Every structure is written in C-alpha cells, then in structure tokens.
Amino acid sequence: MGFRRRLGDAGGRSGLFAPVSAARCAAASRRALGRRFMLDILVLAITVGFFAGAIAYVHACDRL
Length: 64
Known about the structure:
The protein is α+β, with helices and mostly antiparallel strands and 64 residues long. It contains one helix and two strands. The chain is rod-shaped and about 70 Å long. The chain crosses the membrane at residues 37-58.
C-alpha cells in the first residue's frame, strides 16, 4: 500500500497510476510544512505590526 501519482504527464494513459516512494512524499510534506510555518509567522508579524501602528496612531491623535 504505497502512495500513487497519475501518469498523465509522464506519457502514460491518464487512468494509470505509478507508486511514489514514501521518502519522496515525506520530503515534499516537510517542505510544504516549512513554507506554511514561515507564512504563519509572516502573517502574525504583519498583524502585530498593524495593531502596534494603530495604537501609536491613537496615542498620537489623542495628544492633538
């Protein structure tokens, strides 16, 4: 019971499947997880920056 991928792009018939090694799938999964983690950190940093800017803006307007 291994992972499978379509052979449509590899010149085979579109209904055929070929096994993909578990190591190859695991490596792709780790890369995707790393990208997702980096995107999460980027979104959190933007959110914190937005709220910090909003608070600074409110304090600046309050002084006027």
